[in-house]
Sequence to fold (312 residues):
Amino acid sequence: MPSYKPKYPKIVEIEGVDASPFPRKMSISTDESRYNTSINTSGKPLTIYKGKSNPYIDYQNVDLLLSLQHPRSEGYDEMCFYVMGQVKEMLFKGLHFELFNAREQIKDNKISNSIEILNRATNFVKYIADAWDVLSTIKTEGFNEFRDYLGTASGQLSFMYRHVEFILGNKSVKMASAHKNVPHVWPEIENSLKTPSLYDEIIFYLCREGYNITEDALQRDWSKTYKMNKSVKNAWLSVYQEPTNENLLFQLAESLITFDEQFSIYRWRHFVLVKKIIGYKSGTGGSSGVEWLEKVTKHHFFPELWDIRSEL
Ligand code: HEM
Fold:
């Protein structure tokens, strides 16, 4: 455990912050207005603003964002844990946005757009997994200094993470139900639970393209986790008969499996980090901890794409 105690540099007087989460009013600029400004400033950065804010702060509510870090213990490592937790929530939001839009493009039969978006989504996952590098500098004793202050808070209660799992087809009525009592979060979690996932939409597309997909993959209870389907596997096997750059479905499948590969690495790194920090102690969220996490690391979102490898 660090023998030193944290000292918190004061950044924002939080009493003065506009706590509204809504977008703030801002003017827009144009090439012409920017050019005129640079003439007026003789090419130097603008440093004088009216009012009590500036456009950079207002664009992303930065003062509000930087007022939301409240470590609760005397432990040095809690600030690192707190900030990285929030950063990960933001990255899950960015990732979910990409997956949501990849699904929209599939619905519109725009496969190459979807591939482009999935490529960014994969990079998001790599970035999220790299965040474990920072968290892995927390030692067991350092974590113990603030663990009690988490109460029963746990990453498993992350609704943003649950949206990511659900849009990828890893549905769970039980995990969703943890948010039932939160009226401003539950409706969208429930909606996400009951809506066909990105992969379900890809299966509909395979069907639209003339692949023989059986009814059980086209009409089912969407709140259940996707399970391997023989007709979907056969469709992918046909797609893989032509493994070329010109075959968009082949390119899509490769983007999907690369995404899944990176997500597995993300899960695995979390599991290993947890084992390193808390060993076999129970989780704060009520689970057995690493034993439970080891089980979830085995999940693949697109099972047929893994299964066909041994037949190619
Ligand atoms: C660095 C110290 C961390 C430890 C020791 C830790 C430990 C655990 C444990 C034991 C679980 C199992 C559920 C339970 O709590 O009973 C869990 C689940 C989870 N944790 Fe962490 N965690 C850490 C950091 C994080 C961070 C920073 C995030 C990102 C926000 C995160 C995201 C998650 C998620 C999303 C789950 C649920 C996994 C699933 O549903 O598949 N964890 N964690």
The mean pLDDT is 96.
